[in-house]
Amino acid sequence: MVKSQELIDARTLSKLKWRCRRGLLENDIFIDRFFRRFETTLTIRQSQGLSALMDLSDHDLLDLHLARKSLAQVDVDLDRDDVREVLCMLRKTP
What we know:
Blueprint: H1 10-19, H2 25-38, H3 44-54, H4 58-65, H5 71-74, H6 81-91
Helix pairs in contact: 3-6
């Protein structure tokens, strides 16, 4: 198995959850739903994509989630496979 496709360990997951806490309630709701759905299958690659998204401001993150902006509009460096994959996961409805 390619290292980036390995699952993240419990400690890394805990740190990632802590890092994902946001100031806007809407983002917290989307992210909480994401973790409830995907935390047991989250890969290293996906955690890297999620970490990159967490560098954004709350408003940019919400705009991406709601598809009001594209990754390239927010930050051209974020327009990459791992970030697109996680953004798609975030947008999945339960």
